[in-house]
Amino acid sequence: MILRRFAQSMREQNWTGITIEFVLLVLGVFLGIQAANWNEERQMDARRSAALARLHAESEAAIAYLEQRIQVMSEDAESRADTLRRLSDNDWQGVDPGRAAKALESLQYAPAVSPPRAVYDELISAGLYSELGDARLRDAVSSYIAMIGFVQRQIDYVRARFVERNDGRSFKGERPVFDPTSRRQVRRTYDFPALSNNPEYVANAVVNNESTIAQVGWTRELLEKARAMCLELSRIDGKPCTPTTDAAP
């Protein structure tokens, strides 16, 4: 309609009409572009809000996961400390054989650290990460993700050193036996006094224990990074950071 009137005004050389129609034409195009931009921005806001909510929930799950991991590792550390004292002193009076055996087996643990991070990876893949919050939030998230990588590299190093120290080595007093009831169908039996009388085994156990203590420390640092990230998300979306045990994977 506007274009038709504009063409007619041009034929009639109605300059006042031409000016009015031209202004209306430009204004219509401008408003159409603005409406499209506003609609696109509303859609982007909805995507950002949904992404923030999912990332917030994932950060709470990560905190719960790391808290549980530290609790288990700390309980194992108490058992190891008692067992290592007995091992060093060759004092096995009143020992709980099952607890001591579990403690010695845990000296070989270096489990991967795997808190949930699927939402973060998805945001990076979709190119939406740079649209979230502000630089302060993104710095907190990036610091947390970088810490996951650091901890896993340290664990990989611990595993490599463990293999280096123990590959092909067997100690008198420690013997694997077939156990069809266990997950891997193997169980280790221990002659505790014999192990105490083996200085090499004792030294190896002490070094392995040092590595397990270091793992607890790295995991605590990662937990602090996760908490800092969650608090930054709370600052942005206004929702409290409330990790629960149910949120842990």
If you had to describe this structure to a student in words, what would you say it looks like?
The chain is mainly alpha-helical and 249 residues long. It has one domain (2-247). It has seven helices and two strands; from the N terminus they run H-H-H-H-H-E-E-H-H. Strand 1 (174-178) and strand 2 (186-190) form a beta hairpin. The model has no long low-confidence stretch (mean pLDDT 82).
- The percentage helix is over 70%
Supply Rg. Answer: 32 Å
| Number of H/I helices | 7
Shape: rod-shaped
Task: Describe, in short, the structure shown.
This protein is mainly alpha-helical and 249 residues long.
Tags for this model:
two-stranded antiparallel sheet, 249 residues, 4% strand, mainly alpha
Write the layout of secondary structure elements.
Blueprint: H1 2-12, H2 15-89, H3 97-106, H4 118-126, H5 135-166, E1 174-178, E2 186-190, H6 192-196, H7 199-237
Antiparallel strand pairs: 1-2
Helix pairs in contact: 1-2, 2-3, 2-4, 2-7, 5-7
